[in-house]
Amino acid sequence: MAPAGSPNDHFPTLCSCTKLADGQSLYDVKFFPYPTTDEEPIFAVTGSSNIFICRPKLDADPPFEVLRWFQLDDASFLAWCRDPVTRKPLVCVAGERPKQIQIFDVETGEHVRSLVGHGAAINDLAISPLSSSLLASASADYTIRLWNLDPEYEDQPCVAIFAGDGHRQHVLVCHFHPNGRWMLTAGLDTAIALWAVPSMDELTKHRTLDGHPAPLTVYYPHFHSTEVHANYIDTAVFFGDFIVSRAAKDQSEDRAHNKSGQKVKIVPNEILLWRIDGFDSDNDPPAEPPIPSTGVWTRSSFPHDPHSRGFQRLMTFDMPNTTRFYLRFGLLHQPGMRPILAMGNEESRFLFWDLQKLEEGYDPDEEKVVKQPRRRKGKGVAAGAQVNESNLDRLGELRRGESVAGSDAGAGTPDPSSTSISVPPERKYDLGDPFMPLKAHHSVVASTSLSPKKHFAMAQIAWSPDGRWMVGVGDYGMMCIFHRDGSVV
């Protein structure tokens, strides 16, 4: 355990590393994103033919309990939703076969319904922040489908299909913006796309236009690029209006020659933080999405310098020993909490980055206190930025006006009275080179009964909504549970 007051207090402690499913890999884990009656978090885990519904338990051995266990042919990816009528928790699962989304009632264990439409494997599921009835699915059939689980859509639950000139190979990722109006997708074609999600009014109007229900087809994304990453993109999430994404590819056949003519292994696996020039999620989508043209690898409908590529790389995170694709990081980004990026590699090691520390450019545990005018609340970055604005040159808009944990609210009109605020010392983290891999602030090796030569990789990491729990699942049915005290969240 780190000493009290040290920077490592912000990172969770490994409580348990357990083989949850013997002989089967685990592929996905997600916490129930909605409030519960007892305020205790619940998470679901999928792997091959198993679905586990679990609850973490502090000071217990093991530090979790299995509430329910389902078995079916294939359960690789999952998303939580709620019954539109009863509001009971439902878990949606899908995988390579039978090309359907299966929905189960968590309380009774009963199968509720199946969503049929994709022509190939389903590689990811995501629920909309606007409604627990709006579900997105990404597929190997090159499309993304939007489903409405409300009873009035029972005859045709698929309300939109994102296709056309979006992806030309398997889609591996779909992720909603927190405001629900935008969606990120990415896949094996090394392309990442940003789509405007049709409003409910648009979907309803289209549904009744021809007198019979039919999905609305969205042909073009508003941003599309194969230049952000060079390899398969298996993770992409919003960080405010910024994007954190990861690319990886099996390196067994990926080789090049150095100056001496010798074959060398290429390992371009990386996590990037970047932004789309001119993109503001609060604005209405541009009137027309960009049309594909020959020789153009990035197209964007957002305002940007015509001589630029339309996006900016901001940070690169050093993530060694992650050559496999479909190893996904977990990003904690909730209002009022320190944003933390975490990922497990192929050698049973978890790495953590404190993104607030990188934004501020200093170690928050080495602050000194000075008197500064009190500022009334308003939209802006943390009050500390008024002391040294250069510390927020690159990432000052990360939370788009939300106050950061441990700071006063955003800048506003000075008040005659004064208060003590924290002032950063000399900047420690130079973010001038977005291509310089940033080392993790903290790392933990999972100690298991597996031999040192038989490490395991984490396929997915999830944080609880309250920021106190983190769960990683992966090879050999391994599940690692982390916890931290609520006072440091």
From TrEMBL:
Ranges of Basic and acidic residues composition bias in the record: 391-402
UniProt keywords, alphabetically: Repeat, Transcription, Transcription regulation, WD repeat
Superkingdom of this protein's organism: Eukaryota
Family annotation (InterPro entries): PcG_WD-repeat, WD40/YVTN_repeat-like_dom_sf, WD40_repeat_CS, WD40_repeat_dom_sf, WD40_rpt
SUPFAM superfamilies assigned to the protein according to its UniProt record, in alphabetical order: WD40 repeat-like
WD repeats: 115-150, 164-205
Pfam families reported for this sequence: WD40
Disordered as annotated region, ranges: 363-426
Protein family (similarity comment): Belongs to the WD repeat ESC family.
Protein's name according to its UniProt entry: Uncharacterized protein
